[in-house]
Design brief:
Layout lengths: L4 E6 L5 E2 L15 E6 L7 H7 L8 E4 L29 H6 L15 H4 L10 H4 L21 H7 L8 E6 L5 H16 L8 H9 L21 E5 L4 H10 L4 E8 L3 H11 L3 E5 L16 H18 L3 E5 L12 H5 L2 E6 L6 E9 L7 E7 L2 E4 L18 E8 L2 E13 L7 E4 L3 H14 L7 E7 L11 H13 L7 E3 L2 E2 L5 E2 L4 H10 L4 E5 L14 E5 L2 H8 L13
Parallel strand pairs: 5-9, 5-10, 6-7, 6-8, 8-9, 16-17, 18-21, 21-22
Antiparallel strand pairs: 1-2, 1-3, 4-7, 10-11, 11-12, 12-13, 14-15, 15-17, 19-20
Helix pairs in contact: 12-13, 13-15
Length: about 575
């Protein structure tokens, strides 16, 4: 019997340790540390876990059919032993019953296959992933870069580096209700529509039979390069919702497809059995914190359980060359719940974020073994689902072409994409002993520094005024290159001098009042010229050498803040503003 040890786990963020604390060292919550007894894993490897595990219960996986009622399950006829409709259980022939004996179930050829598949020889079974890794490169089949699976969203493919690589594991994390499950459900439906598995459209039982039979015509001679065919179904495993609940959401967002199989289970053995049975083209697990293994002690969602579940799913993905999309929970501070090992084990880590008050959603790549890690995808959340925004140039700009005081436009880099951001400022007379500073989308400490520099090097005193600075539609102007636009918006609001709507400003402001160069200036200028801007105020010591001229836009070079405000036309006061106002 394994010796148990006392562990203390935070119920909010999942932190664990050997000592009790009144306040969680990770998230800072009080009274959330609970004691539980955790025994070490009974198995050291996933192979021994499968050898010692009892036969898992096979749950049903049902396709999502549009506006079609769920067929009731028919009673099994004992004399013929047909397969139950709506279930992926194999037919109970004498060969199958003999291969499913509880004393050693995992040593059978394939416990998830029907009788006619269990008669194959031992050489036709899949080999472990560790053995296939010793094959020479010339026998490893096609390059995975050539067989990427497109998600149906160009923005999603952009973040992943061109699509989903076969055998890869992608972890999707985000706040509750941000739209992770909706995005992955629509992605699963898009890939299922591409598969075109007409055999799965007749009935649920036909889908189970056809997925359990190995395709000898398309199988690669090398087990390591065996991939699910393009006509294979897509499996969506939900540990948080029932099948009917997932079906309702799929019908609401238009993600109904007969090739999309839905299963509801929280047992790791059942999930692995479904993957072995259906041999899907893609697997979506929602979520990794709700699935648990009965072979490892610990609470579901704890560090030990999450590590074991992630290891088993990744081993199945690499062994069968089936890509997987995992949903991950986050803690109060926005980090992924569970051990840090989870992020190291998977191939891609994506963060799905956005403000709850707005419909804009941003998908960022934090880790990507098959592409860049600084890409961002834009999506729009609505009641009918998620739609991608291929050209987000107008998301963070106000409507109208009127020149209004207190506004300035700049371009901020988000990954490889240059986004226009409109900064708005309001300067009013303060009636409080300490003037108010309110920001939205801008760092408040950065604003305090800019106000001090404007007073010292531009002669504009705003220290005694209430300042309100914000961006449009939840945009973020936290990049140092946005300093000049913030200072220009404040000066425009204080002097009541509007800035031309066709003028943009770039530059980082130093404490000495100098305008420092910004990275990727050429990308910002080309995007500004494409959107119709005619004039740009840029640092004189810019990193863009101008060898490739940008037609249609005039560059105004400035050295310091005073020259920049003069070039923008906000240095001359139309009405004098004093410190007491």
């Amino acid at each position: 019997m394994a010796k148990s040890s006392v562990q203390y786990v935070c119920s909010d963020c999942g932190w664990n340790g050997v000592k009790w604390f009144g306040r969680c060292p990770s998230c800072g919550s009080w009274g959330t540390i609970e004691e539980f007894h955790e025994a070490p894993s009974r198995t050291k490897t996933h192979a021994s876990h499968r050898a010692n595990a009892p036969l898992p219960t096979v749950v049903s996986a049902q396709p999502v059919l549009p506006a079609q009622p769920v067929q009731p399950m028919q009673p099994m006829q004992p004399q013929e032993s047909p397969q139950t409709e709506g279930s992926l259980q194999p037919q109970e022939s004498p060969q199958t019953q003999e291969s499913l004996q509880p004393q050693d179930p995992w040593q059978s050829q394939d416990f998830a296959q029907p009788a006619h598949a269990s008669q194959q020889t031992q050489s036709s079974t899949r080999q472990p992933f560790q053995q296939s890794s010793r094959l020479p490169q010339s026998r490893m089949g096609r390059n995975p870069e050539d067989v990427r699976i497109h998600t149906g969203f160009s923005e999603f493919d952009r973040v992943l580096g061109g699509g989903i690589v076969p055998g890869s594991v992608v972890l999707m994390a985000g706040e509750p209700g941000i739209g992770k499950s909706t995005l992955l459900l629509e992605t699963a439906a898009n890939i299922a529509r591409q598969s075109g598995n007409s055999a799965a459209t007749n009935s649920i039982g036909d889908a189970a039979d056809s997925s359990a039979i190995p395709n000898s015509t398309t199988a690669s001679p090398t087990p390591s390069t065996t991939t699910s065919g393009t006509n294979a179904p897509v499996l969506y495993i939900s540990g948080e919702e029932s099948q009917s609940q997932v079906r309702m959401r799929a019908q609401r967002i238009g993600a109904t497809c007969p090739e999309l199989l839905i299963a509801s289970t929280t047992d790791l053995g059942s999930a692995l059995t479904l993957i072995e049975q259906t041999k899907p083209r893609l697997v979506v697990a929602d979520s990794v914190q709700t699935i648990y293994s009965d072979q490892v002690d610990g609470i579901p969602g704890g560090s030990t359980q999450v590590r074991e579940v992630a290891t088993a799913l990744i081993d199945s993905a690499k062994r069968t060359d089936t890509p997987m999309l995992l949903v991950g929970h986050v803690t109060k501070d926005g980090s992924i719940a569970g051990p840090r090992t989870l992020e190291h084990l998977v191939d891609v880590v994506c963060q799905f974020e956005g403000e709850p008050q707005t419909a804009l959603r941003l998908l960022r790549s934090i880790k990507n073994r098959f592409g860049p890690t600084d890409e961002v995808g834009c999506f729009d959340m609505s009641g009918e689902g998620i739609e991608e925004v291929r050209d987000p140039s107008g998301l963070f700009l106000s409507d109208g072409d009127d020149d209004l005081a207190g506004t300035c436009i700049t371009f901020t880099m988000d990954g490889h994409r240059s986004l226009p951001i409109e900064v708005q400022a309001l300067v009013t007379k303060s009636v409080l002993p300490s003037p108010r500073r309110a920001t939205n989308g801008i760092d408040q400490n950065r604003l305090a520094m800019i106000v001090a520099v404007v007073y010292r090097h531009a002669g504009l005193n705003l220290l005694a005024n209430d300042l309100y600075v914000s961006t449009i539609a939840g945009g973020s102007a936290r990049e140092p290159a946005d300093d000049l636009a913030i200072a220009a918006a404040l000066a425009s609001a204080a002097t009541d001098s509007p800035i031309d709507r066709r003028t943009v400003a770039f530059g980082e402001i130093s404490l000495t009042g100098q305008i420092r160069p910004v990275p990727r200036l050429e990308n910002r200028l080309r995007e500004a010229a494409r959107l119709g801007y005619k004039r740009a105020v840029v640092p004189r010591n810019r990193r863009y050498d101008g060898r490739r001229p940008i037609p249609g836009i005039e560059l105004v070079e400035v050295r310091n803040l005073a020259e920049a405000l003069r070039a923008l036309g906000v240095e001359k006061q139309r009405r004098r503003v004093t410190a007491s106002e």
